[in-house]
Write a structure and sequence with these properties.
Rossmann fold, 350 residues, 9 strands
Amino acid sequence: MTASAPAGAPDADHVWEATFALPEQFALGAATAASVAAGLQPSRAPVANVAAFGMGGSGIGHDVLAAIAAPQSPVPICVCKDYEVPAFVGPQSLVLAASFSGNTEETVAAFSASLARGARVVVVAGGGRLAELAADARVPVVPVPRDIPHPRLAIGAMSVAPLLVLEALGLLPGASSLVASAAEQLSRRRDQLAAGDLAAQIAGRIGRTIPLIYGGGAIGRAAAMRWKCQVNENAKSPAFFSAHPELDHNELAGWGQMGDITRQLLTLVDLRHDFEHPQVVRRFAAVDEVMEEVVAGIVTVRAAGEGPLAQLFDLVLVGDVVALALAAREGVDPGPIPVLEDLKVAVART
């Protein structure tokens, strides 16, 4: 497994190279965000809540934010992936609006509505309409490098910015330390993936089955969602995710029928980390015993690194490279996603 696509595997947009450059992107994003965050002025009134807007590859950074910050934040953090702005957003709200292109229509709409309500807004964007509106309103913008080929590949820059913004405003003490540990772990894992065949082995076990990805708690859920989305967009293949303990109250019952079919179609991927609740640890073991009867196999991926952010991004990078390996196995170019671009055009015309 190297930083370039295997011989014969298509990669018109250099997605392999961008994926293996995540440690450098993460570090650069942290430095850029820290410089902007240092200029933020304390709020005239205490922040009562945080609303974070973003879609797709741009919005994943806010899922990371919620997973890491929610357990420590003194105020609630709401991740919003829609056009509408929650009714609670107002003058005491901190609004984070993230769009890699700066033209995501849902996020631009939410930005404008939040500004009209008097909310304090910080933007993370690579340019576009969102950056223009922010400049007009004198709203702080954390810039994102535009040489990254696709929004989903900018997860490092899109994730560190909101973490460091919250730290600067006193809502997430210690974020800089978490970011530093994550950067170190990303470098270690990247070197391991480049030198070995871990991702290829996992992709081989999944094969042509559909990965069903289970995480534990908020960290595991964010990682599992990232795996699912990367398999969708890079391998152009179905994938599904869920998280303990919620899946133990509904989804598990759904495997009571059709085992003869699901055993041929699904491979369970368990994403494990050191910050799972003790009961979640027990749930993984108990559920795996049930799932052995209804899936083709169970693959376990264990996170490494110091701290929750490091372990979350460790799982992210492994999943990103596994998705590329799945694409290469089928001769699929991981870059272009024409169906999503066509959908944007279709929606814009109606």
